[in-house]
Amino acid sequence: GWCVVAYDASTPYPGRAALVPTLATAAVILAAIPGRGEREAQGAYGVGRLLAGRAPRAIGRLSYTLYLWHWPVLVLAEARLGTLGWPARTAWTLAAVLPAIATMRWVEQPLRRSRTVSELPRRGLAVGVSAIVLPVALALVVGTATLHLMGPATPVDVKGLPPGAASGPSLLGGAAADGPVVPNPVQAREDFPPDGDCQVAPEVTSSPKCLFGAVDSPDRIVLLGDSHAGQWFSPMLALAARRGWALQELVKQGCPLPELAVTSPQLGRAYRECDTWRADALDRLRTGPKPRLIVIASLNRYTTDRELLATAWEKTLRPLRETGAPIVYIEDTPVPGSDIPACVSGAPADAAACAFDRAEAVRDDPLARR
Known about the structure:
By secondary structure, the chain is α/β, with parallel strands linked by helices. It has two domains: 117 residues, no CATH class; 169 residues, Rossmann fold. The protein is 47% helix and 8% strand. The chain is built from 15 helices and eight strands. The strands form two sheets. Strands 1, 2, 3, 4, 7 and 8 form a six-stranded mixed β-sheet that branches. The radius of gyration is 27 Å and the shape is elongated.
């Protein structure tokens, strides 16, 4: 019960946090086991007496089947309806009880009680392997077929647009016809910058060389920050190519560029590797050849303390200014708070269904105000 209240999206899970509900469940089960020479049910209020009731035992029999069913039910509901609050999630989980009961009644129990399966171990093993392999194969076939049917994303030709043209509707003329969503929602989750391993993982403390474009050029653009800087890799590479420069990427996942002490959800502890990586990246820029341009960006949600964030940015900007290179800051992109590809996939003809509140998605940025 405590986990339901205390755990949130920032809790590293799965991880050490999973030990609390796991060990608590084991303790409850252990408490219900009678000791040597004791009766099965201890006292009117003992946990063994409570768990021995018909209702808890029925829930226990159904629990794993319900666990398997409630995930696809919730995922499909959110894909169709958007982000669900806890009342809706509770209602959909309760709705999953019906297919769970049906599966247990007409699939699980007949197989478990089948003499054909139980008397021939090899046949039982074959049924078990088939029950694993066939759903996986079916998922791969259906997924691949879906991608094939949808085809590649339709390219959009932007060469004819004048410099600085806006992508939204113009106030001076009629709105342009809506075009296809690029990339399509199925492909969006795999739409990552083609920068190899240059967005280094949490456990890494130093970025590799990571030069792209005209790597022999004495001039280079440096892209510096966390993954919210890495998302600008492709346009920065295009800019560097246009000028005949190199692009150097110094990006670390989940590591704030402002000098903040944070916890890594992946590592489940203080993110010391981030501090080491940041110091190393700044030292390399300060002591190495002067870049033609330094482009910085970072997630704007590592802390809600705006004064602390401004101070942290100043600590990072000080050594960057010492390089003498121009510094361009790209303000953080909005964080919608919901699964946009899933929403767009569920409502392809109604983009407004996936709208979100700007005030919640865009945090006040002390660096952008300068």
